[in-house]
Amino acid sequence: MAKYAAALDQGTTSSRCMVFDHGGQVVAVEQLDHEQIFPQAGWVEHDPAEIWQRCREVMDGALNKAGASADDIAALGVTNQRETTVVWDRNSGEPVFNAIVWQDTRTDKICAELAEDGGQDRFRLKNGLPIATYFSGPKVRWILENVDGTRERAEAGDLCFGNIDTWCIWNLTGGTDGGLHITDVSNASRTMLMNLETLDWDDELLDAIGVPRSMLPEIRPSSAVYGEIKEGTLAGVQVAGDLGDQQAATFGQTCFAVGEAKNTYGTGNFLLLNTGNEAVQSKNGLITTVGYKIGDADAVYCLEGSIAITGALVQWLRDNLKMISTSAEIEELAKTVDDNGGAYFVPAFSGLFAPYWKANARGVVAGLTRFVNRGHLARAALEATAFQSREVADAMNADSGVEMESLKVDGGMVGNETLMQFQADILGVPVIRPEVAETTSLGAAYAAGLATGFWSEVEDLRENWAEDKRWEPQMDADAREQAYHFWKKAVERTFDWAE
């Protein structure tokens, strides 16, 4: 009898495998980083072969740490950095190019061309998305237009496209030896190529964006038995869950009711609100996405506010400016001062995502005086995460017509208590951290375990959720709004910088 459910969580900066027991508690975790490749300004790439190797290593490591065998694992769920685009040869299994990462802005000219006829919201009624460099479809087109021979090979049916979930599942289930070329509705909804109503690839979108249907994976539910792992320590285990990372975190936070929301603090930040079986179109700069689909049940949709750079700003201070030697040091440095000293840091490194969608914005530090020191800049960097989340929360309140009463949080940055307190202050609502903060992996494991009967229904998952800590707002309303006013002024300084 299986004792555990497992998740393969392939993220922007690292891959991890986590093993969970029936109570949703962590049994084992193994995590390894992979290289970030920056060929030129605005370009961000990963090596798909390196990512797959890291995935194999972390699965072996987690199983070993758990003291478990494949027989102990009920199912494996996969979750992934979304929109990051891989194109590979279905016969050799070799990628034709590095993976183009979601933060990459090289498709700005393609996106501008697509927006000439109908504007940035040209496809929004069909796919819920603005035309933006963020999404996969334009990245596929860039590869087909810039890597010799790929357009012809794609038209001949020799190339596969997928987000990272598709690449991992294809390799897990056999690769060139019968590997499954599939994705789920949550990942497909991030490509600009899927119709939100039909939950299938849309010929009008494919023709306009320039992606052959023959390259595309089959779209499956997020929780369903797909097939079994063919080799390695997990050979024979069913792959039974597939969710984009932010949808997986929503699932792991058990946001199964309309109106429930969570915010994940990672490389970027992503606030998702469950809108039920209705795809709600945003009027305030959010995107409409598929949250999840359990088996044959109707799909559940979400409104999402996507922020490109939050944790990545801390990494930038560490790696590019050498201000800190580890990411965790940012909090101690920020605590050396009482406030930001009047400095505001807007990290529009990849343009601005929600609610602005301005690809030509670039980062600024505003309000500098000779009084400002390293501590103030560290604090301003943390506050940037909270301010950006406030902007998204305001848009979500306007779209949904419901005022947020509290915010569930998860992800790598929620251990930073200075940030969490400021987030509660600037939102004016309590911020709540669960006992298991790595809800992305937990959500993927939940989806897989539901499909195989390890958990019988979503109410079992709700019972596993437990609060770890809560932060109540301490800032008075006038101070909150004054700080936010200056943040908005700083954001305006980033607009239209790139020409």
> Would you count the extended β strands for me?
23
Radius of gyration: 21 Å
Q: Main sheet, how many strands, which sense, barrel?
A: 7 strands, mixed
Give the % helix.
25-40%
Sheet with most strands: strand arrangement: 17-18-16-15-21-22-23
| Mean pLDDT value | 94
Distance between the termini: 61 Å
Give me the secondary-structure category: alpha+beta
Query: Based on CA inertia axes, which overall geometry fits?
Result: globular
Question: What is the helix tally?
Answer: 16
Report the sheet-strand fraction.
15-25%
Q: Segments where pLDDT lies below 50 for 5+ residues?
A: none
Topology (elements, then pairings):
Blueprint: E1 4-10, E2 14-20, E3 26-33, E4 45-46, H1 48-66, E5 73-80, E6 85-89, E7 99-100, H2 108-115, H3 124-127, H4 136-146, H5 150-155, E8 159-163, H6 164-172, E9 182-184, H7 185-188, E10 194-195, E11 200-201, H8 203-209, E12 218-220, E13 223-228, E14 238-244, H9 245-252, E15 261-265, E16 269-276, E17 287-292, E18 300-307, H10 311-319, H11 329-334, E19 344-346, E20 364-366, H12 374-400, E21 407-410, H13 417-427, E22 431-434, H14 439-452, H15 458-464, E23 467-471, H16 477-492
Parallel strand pairs: 1-5, 5-14, 9-12, 15-21, 21-22
Antiparallel strand pairs: 1-2, 2-3, 4-7, 6-8, 10-11, 13-14, 15-16, 16-18, 17-18, 19-20, 22-23
Helix pairs in contact: 9-14, 10-12, 12-13
